[in-house]
From TrEMBL:
InterPro entries: O-antigen_ligase-rel_domated (IPR007016), WaaL-like (IPR051533). The chain crosses the membrane at residues 12-33, 39-59, 66-88, 100-116, 123-141, 173-189, 196-214, 244-263, 299-319, 339-364, 376-395, 401-418. It is found in: Membrane. This is O-antigen ligase family protein. It comes from Anaerocellum danielii. It comes from the Bacteria.
Length: 429
């Protein structure tokens, strides 16, 4: 009876709770009572998941071989160095805050890897599609009604008809659309699946995501989206390319029909004009009114100067914003608005270089899976496209360390890599 309980706990109960945790992570603090906004569904499921894993490890022990790889060593080392940086951090409260986010998100990544043999990609795929559709529905409701969820800060920015859905701002929502669009594309072109409804739901979702992305006016994510599409098409096999071209042709014919009969009521021209304005603003470095580009440039300059002052060891976990407060009259913003710069300034040169090495390490191993043409080839292509877009999209959001959808991409990457090795009875190094 005890053995049966241990088996069910690891094979059924923990995966089920992990799926719910993953699902609730896409909706953040909106799944909570406003007066207890810190106690939202994701945190409740995550706490329960940690509790069950603790029981599992007590009953069954830990399989060390599952953790003996570069990813584990780097992630745990990053977490340890972040703790060490408390010794020179100016603001311990900010350091603790970021340390909590970093530690929890790293644990989530390791959980995906450790329990990969009991998890199924198709379930993650369904969760991603369902979540994506819900986000699109809410996004279009926000555009039509100009009303937002209680967690959104769009009303504070005095923006109108701008979607943010379950995120705090349009930039975060745009980053989400870009990072998860490759998975939706993968569902649409997967020839091994004969689910007609799912394929067309995925195709329509991919198409309907484009107007919402344009309405976010997130310049970095415009470019990130194009990078994701380009990388996906580049990595796709011949049959997959044919499917992509087939869907693209359908989309273009439909678009020409709509525009030709003026059924879009001028929305297409307005969208093109909006994109032109946003992209042209990328070269606007006017200092008379501190344009966004100038502020971003100053954030980089001051961030690197702080890094230099701390001898390239990093200013300490969560302390970039504390130092930036001192020059706020020049930068306006206190967040670095660049995830890679955030990692460099807060954790130093060594962690930053290892972080880049780790990302390319993941890309290299995912590429090897894609080459083998296994059942995990399409997920690998989606992940590579998403990570490639992430290099640009990560510039958009002000602070990404607490953005679960970003950490989920890396968690899914490790899941796919580990799953691929386990299918052959191997452990990857």
């Amino acid at each position: 009876m005890e053995n049966a309980f241990r088996f069910r706990l690891k094979q059924n109960v923990i995966p089920a709770i992990l799926y719910f945790t993953f699902l609730s992570g896409f909706f953040g603090s909106t799944l909570a009572y406003p007066k207890l906004s810190y106690l939202f569904a994701y945190r409740i499921f995550l706490a329960f998941l940690f509790f069950l894993i603790f029981i599992d490890l007590m009953l069954n022990g830990i399989e060390l071989r599952s953790f003996l790889n570069f990813s584990t060593f780097f992630l745990i080392g990053w977490c340890a160095y972040s703790l060490l940086s408390f010794l020179w951090a100016q603001d311990i409260k900010s350091a603790v805050r970021d340390q909590v986010f970093l530690t929890i998100n790293i644990f989530v990544i390791l959980i995906f890897m450790y329990y990969s043999r009991y998890l199924r990609w198709d379930v993650f795929e369904n969760i991603i599609l369902i979540s994506f559709i819900i986000h699109l529905v809410v996004g279009y409701l926000e555009v039509v009604t100009d009303k937002h969820l209680w967690t959104s800060k769009v009303p504070l920015y005095n923006l109108h008809r701008t979607p943010s859905t379950f995120f705090a701002n349009p930039n975060d929502f745009a980053t989400y659309l870009v990072l998860y669009s490759p998975f939706i594309l993968g569902l649409a072109i997967n020839k091994s699946r004969n689910n007609f409804f799912k394929k067309w739901a995925a195709f329509l979702s991919a198409v309907l995501a484009i107007p919402l992305l344009i309405l976010t006016t997130s310049r970095a994510n415009y470019i990130g989206f194009l990078i994701a599409l380009f990388v996906y098409f580049l990595l796709a096999g011949k049959d997959q390319k044919k499917n992509l071209l087939y869907y693209a042709a359908i989309f273009l014919v439909f678009l020409m029909f709509i525009i030709g009969f003026r059924l879009d009521f001028g929305a297409f021209n307005k969208g093109i004009e909006m994109i032109k304005i946003q992209l042209s603003s990328l070269v606007d470095f006017s200092q008379t009114y501190l344009s966004s580009n100038v502020r971003r440039k100053l954030l980089v300059v001051y961030g690197l100067s702080f890094l230099y002052d701390y001898l390239f060891f990093g200013v300490g976990s969560g302390n970039s914003r504390v130092l930036m407060e001192k020059v706020k009259q020049y930068t306006v913003n206190v967040e670095l608005h660049n995830w890679f710069l955030d990692v460099l300034v807060c954790y130093g040169t060594v962690v930053f270089i290892l972080y880049l090495v780790w990302i390319f390490y993941l890309l290299y191993n995912l590429f090897k899976i894609r080459e083998k043409n296994s059942t995990l080839s399409l997920p690998a292509i989606s992940l590579m496209s998403s990570i490639s877009a992430f290099f640009i999209s990560s510039i958009s959001s002000s602070k990404m360390i607490e953005m679960r959808v970003m950490w989920f991409i890396f968690a899914l990457s490790l899941f796919v890599l580990t799953k691929s090795k386990e299918e052959k009875g191997e452990y990857w190094a």
